[in-house]
Design a protein that fits this description.
Blueprint: E1 5-6, H1 10-15, E2 25-29, E3 35-39, E4 45-53, E5 56-64, H2 70-85, H3 90-111, H4 115-126, H5 132-140, E6 147-150, E7 153-156, H6 175-186, H7 190-207, H8 225-230, H9 246-254, H10 259-271, H11 275-279, E8 286-287, E9 292-295, E10 304-307, H12 310-317, H13 341-350, H14 358-368, H15 376-383, H16 390-394, H17 400-417
Parallel strand pairs: 1-2
Antiparallel strand pairs: 2-3, 3-4, 4-5, 6-7, 8-9, 9-10
Helix pairs in contact: 9-13, 10-14
Length: 424
């Protein structure tokens, strides 16, 4: 028997070492063909398997001795030997098994994915592309119990519609689950439910194009007839102030205890701006020298410049400056008015006016402007409506003084109907 080939025992292998001057040395087991112990000058010892496949020498590391026992090494060497006889490269087989195992783990994790995982990925993937208002709408409609004020008391808000779907596994979002969710939300807030559905649908359409989520959603669940029928059709609102209601409306709004909300509502009516365009107005956007306001526009990323009319200027200058926002809110965590609807409803009720929304004030600007024959292009430019027609889009550029001429005329007419005398 060669001193390099012997029956492996723990005692013998413990004594084995790499001869001086060699980078490694291999001892062979006489019981199992191809099983060796590779020793190094560093005292490291590694079980290996060596054979030939397709005319080429094949060496495979099995494990470190003594962490790997002799019996384990022999068993592994025998398995490799069987593969070699079948013409299988053990290295490739090991790689295949690892990849198969990784794929199974990946599929297992995929099956455990919640809608929350998809929703968060969807928001992160689109945050930079969306306008801030769009992103905040997604966050808001998926929020849970948020702390809010009711009067002077703190309380928890009711979770928003999408929140109910977040902890449902993605592969369980069937048409039954989605239609049940919609029917439940429709009982109290059909409009929010319809908007939430559109956001969820867009999210799931996006997910279906991502390899991570493809095939997990039950087939066409979001597009099923059952789900579509559960969505409450949204009807265009027509709430709008009438000329004869202006006096009582102004009186009721001016009497509101919060001067910031009072001014906010009147400025929205006179400028026709969107609710968030006025709410997020900053003091730096108010140019008292040239009497202009810089409005963050939903349509134009650069915003738009509109006249600062005398009454609007008076309303703004009467407000105390607490932070960067003109329409400051002590209760809001972001520093400006977020939910003026409750105050608007109180004012409308006191003025004996049927329910009117914040967007209804914007709609009123367009409707009431016809009493003073404001050109439609002037109205659109002040209110920030998307230009219609080639001429409006590419050729008509109105200077601010022309806008101011018409805007002041409109404001003066409004104040006259409201019996408000401007204090100059």
């Amino acid at each position: 028997m060669s001193v390099t080939t012997f029956k492996f025992t723990t005692a013998r292998l413990t004594q084995c070492s790499c001869p001086v001057g060699k980078s490694y040395f291999i001892y062979w087991d006489e019981l199992v063909k191809g099983l060796g112990l590779k020793t190094y000058p560093t005292s490291k010892k590694m079980f290996i398997y060596q054979s030939r496949l397709g005319g080429k020498v094949l060496k495979i590391s099995i494990g470190v001795f003594p962490n790997y026992s002799i019996d384990q090494a022999r068993q592994m060497a025998k398995e490799y030997d069987v593969m070699i006889l079948q013409g299988i490269d053990p290295r490739l087989e090991k790689k295949r098994l690892i990849e198969k195992n990784e794929e199974e783990i990946k599929n297992y994790k995929r099956q455990k994915l919640l809608f929350r995982d998809v929703w968060d990925d969807y928001l992160n993937a689109n945050k930079e592309r969306w306008r801030d208002r769009t992103y905040q709408d997604h966050v808001r409609l998926a929020s849970g119990n948020n702390e809010i004020f009711k009067g002077k008391h703190r309380t928890l808000s009711k979770p928003q519609p999408i929140y109910a779907l977040l902890d449902i596994p993605l592969n369980e979002l069937s048409s039954n689950v989605l239609s049940t969710w919609l029917n439940q939300e429709n009982l109290e807030r059909p409009t929010s439910a319809a908007l939430s559905f559109r956001l969820v649908r867009a999210c799931l359409n996006w997910a279906d194009e991502q390899s991570m989520y493809t095939g997990l959603l039950p087939d066409r669940s979001i597009h099923s007839k059952k789900v579509k029928q559960a969505v409450t059709p949204t009807k265009a609102k027509k709430d709008c102030l009438q000329k004869e209601q202006l006096a009582s409306f102004f009186k009721a709004v001016i009497e509101l205890p919060n001067p910031y909300i009072s001014a906010y509502l009147l400025v929205t009516l006179i400028t026709g701006a969107r609710r968030n365009e006025i709410a997020t107005l900053k003091w730096q956007d108010v140019d008292l020298k040239w009497n202009t306001l810089h409005i963050s526009d939903k349509i134009d990323d650069d915003g738009r410049i509109i006249p600062l009319t005398p009454f609007v200027k008076q309303l703004i200058l009467n407000l105390e400056r607490h932070n960067e926002y003109v329409f400051y809110s002590e209760k809001s965590s972001i520093g400006y008015i977020v939910e003026p609807t409750k105050s608007l409803k109180i004012a409308a009720s006191n003025a004996e006016i049927d329910d009117i929304t914040i967007h209804g004030l914007r709609r009123s600007f367009k409707t009431l402007s016809e009493w003073v024959s404001l050109p439609s292009g002037i109205v659109a430019q002040i209110a920030g409506h998307k230009p219609s027609g080639t001429e409006e889009k590419h050729y008509t550029v109105r200077p601010i003084d022309l806008l101011r001429k018409w805007h002041i005329e409109y404001e003066e007419w409004i104040l006259k109907q409201a019996h408000i005398k401007l204090e100059l």
